[in-house]
Amino acid sequence: MYEQVKTGPLYDKVVRSMSTYRSIAARMASAKSRTQGKLDRRLESLGDKIAEQLSELSGNELQALTCWKDGIMPDTYEIDHDAITEKPYISIRRIDRWDEEYDVAERKALLKAGDERDETQKKADAAKLRAFLSMTDDT
User: Fold this and answer.
1) Going by fewer Cβ within 10 Å, which terminus of the chain is more open, N or C?
2) Of all helices (H) and strands (E), which one includes residue 78?
3) How far is Cα 54 from Cα 62, in angstroms, rounded to an integer?
4) How far apart are CA 90 and CA 1, in angstroms?
């Protein structure tokens, strides 16, 4: 089971910016020293841009994202550099799934109660199913 959160165009823009941030941070590890300086400045400006975009999102949209944290000032947010580089293959969009637990016997009884066919129809359907399952492909 899952619940889908309604998001707007700004949410998609933030996700793209965070994805760009992640790819630049990944390039940083294998870059030469002079390129690292350029990438570091780019990461810093992109981080500021993402912080501004995060502050414009609604509460539900913020909860639908990962890899961000609260800023120093109240109601400000910033990108969580450690989380975004630690999990390079995990989605920036939060995906939480949980299993629905139910009693098998109760579920079976509920399905039987919802079956509106009479006994003759049930027997005819069972016979058709057995005939179909017993067919062999001898052609």
Assistant:
1) C
2) strand 77-79
3) 7
4) 20
Q: CA 38, CA 27: separation in Å to the nearest integer?
A: 11
Tokens 């016997």 correspond to 105
CA 73 to chain centre: 29
pLDDT in tens, 10-45: 888 998 999 898 888 888 888 898 899 899 999 999
Task: Report the run of H or E that residue 89 belongs to, with start and end.
Answer: none
In this prediction the pTM is: 0.62
Measured in Å, how far apart are the chain's first and last C-alpha atoms? 44
Q: Which of 137, 10, 22, 30 is nearest to 84 (CA)?
A: 22
